[in-house]
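Thread: quick sanity check before group meeting

JM: Hey all, I'm pulling together slides for Thursday and realized we never actually wrote out the predicted structure for the chain we discussed last week. Dropping the sequence here so it's in one place. If anyone has concerns about the input, flag it before I start.
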Amino acid sequence: MNIEEFLAHPTPLPTPSIPFLTEYDALWDSIMVDFRLNLVLNRGYLLIQGMGMPLEYDAGVLVLHGLTSIQNSQPKGATRSLRTIHLWKPTFKDGRWSVETATESGNSFSVSALGAEIVLGLTGVGERPLPDFEYATDAELAAGLVSWRSEFRPLARQVVGAVPSFE
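JM (edit): ok, ran it. Output follows.
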């Protein structure tokens, strides 16, 4: 099963040993790969390659339910960059979950939602070396990073806040 298929048909999973959605810098050195937005369900999906995760996981998807804000910024003139997390600052206050992130390349990304869940698992992508972002083609970059179509073995899920079921 790939990541897209799992998100369409989630299954119950145990809670991870690390509280990724509440612990400061729990995703340090992980890579933010892609973000998708579903306006009908008011959900956001952040795909993460787990360079900084414990060895039992190499990828994760942060699912934002009841999305209330999204902000993304990058240095002027940057066309693509490796978004390695060097700040992961989650909070849950007044019924809203939010996270601020910053990367070593000067990017920032922040979101808030009524609830969040993170699904962690294995794709096998973590076993490959990262592509050289300065010289690699777009195809080489895509082949070297986790994608929504990567084979995925989900292992753990953490939930914070209101996570409604639309299924």
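AS: nice. The two ends are 19 Å apart (CA to CA). Helices lie at 3-8, 138-144.
JM: adding both to the slides.
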